[in-house]
Design a protein that fits this description.
The chain is an alpha/beta fold. It contains eleven helices and eight strands. The chain is 39% helix and 13% strand. The termini are far apart. The chain binds NADP nicotinamide-adenine-dinucleotide phosphate (NAP). The site of NADP nicotinamide-adenine-dinucleotide phosphate has 24 residues, from helix 1. This is 3-hydroxyisobutyrate dehydrogenase. Keywords: Oxidoreductase.
């Protein structure tokens, strides 16, 4: 497939590398200097593009920037992108990083807000695993304990296509419902960054409690940042699993 990725950070850059390795045709952009972008794209095995070009002649656009950056994207960025092009949102809202976004703070589902900012439907995916998991936790289809990723959206056909890309990245995909249900894998839920198998993830999505999620999200940031040294990846995953009484891996 032809894939354009906006954002080349921990998530966007890793997705780019994995999609190129799986044989997809990938171009990327970020907010930085063109020469640095070209060098990074070379390392990732993809093509550097401008923000204008990255969305041209592609099947899928993956938006992988901090939530706060979304309204700073060029106005009408996607206005001329054909309807059948799938737009994927990987974002997670963190007030300490993304400042106050009143609608999200008032419980608007994060990717519903993103969809409104962009003025078109989005699929939420690649948001409920840590970048380290995405980079190094993939396995072959059918492998024991293969980690699963949640995919939400209102277009079943688009979700199936994104599920294929998730499989190419080394993960099982679990359909988490319509975009309005995607709060079930936002920060502060049992599905979030806990490295579950598909069956466990289905259970975790069902166990999520909407009102608790922002409180647990903020507690996790406070707890993890109060540690004397930065926790290891495995410690973060274990912490996240322990945050919920009903996490399938903690019961
Ligand atoms: N890190 C994780 O473990 C993780 C896991 C799941 C989901 N997520 C979510 O996925 C999103 C990306 O996360 P990340 O960790 O990859 O972030 P990151 O490492 O900070 O990278 C963000 C990328 O967005 C680019 N960017 C920012 N504003 C832009 C703009 N206006 N136009 C074009 N590019 C822009 C940055 O460009 P420059 O490179 O030029 O600065 C950078 O490449 C966030 O919403 C995050 O919450 C993160």
């Amino acid at each position: 497939m032809k894939i354009g990725i906006i954002g080349t950070g921990a998530i966007g850059g890793t997705i780019a590398k994995k999609m190129a390795a799986a044989g997809h045709n990938v171009k990327v952009t970020n907010s930085g200097d063109t020469d640095k972008l070209k060098a990074l794209a070379g390392e990732l095995g993809v093509v550097a593009a401008t923000i204008k070009d990255v969305i041209e002649d592609v099947d899928v656009i993956i938006l992988s920037v901090p939530t706060v950056a979304i309204p700073t994207l060029p106005k009408d960025l996607l206005a001329n992108v054909p309807e059948n092009v799938i737009v994927v949102d990987t974002s997670n809202y963190y007030p300490f990083r993304d400042a106050d976004i009143e609608e999200i703070k008032n419980r608007k589902v994060e990717s519903v807000w993103v969809s409104e900012q962009l003025g078109r439907p989005v699929i939420k995916a690649f948001n409920n695993l840590l970048a380290e998991t995405l980079a190094n936790g993939g396995k072959e289809p059918g492998a024991k304990d293969r980690i699963a990723m949640a995919v939400a959206g209102d277009d079943l056909k688009a979700k199936k296509i994104i599920e294929g890309l998730i499989n190419d990245a080394g993960f099982d995909a679990v359909d988490s419902g319509n975009l309005s249900e995607s709060w079930r894998h936002q920060p502060g839920t049992p599905a979030y960054c806990t490295e579950l198998t598909a069956e466990e993830l289905k259970q975790a999505l069902s166990n999520a409690v909407k009102e608790e999620a922002p409180l647990l999200r903020d507690k996790a940031i406070a707890d993890l940042s109060s540690l004397p040294s930065y926790p290891s990846h495995q410690d973060i995953v274990e912490y996240n699993r322990g945050l919920f009484q009903k996490n399938p891996k903690s019961v």
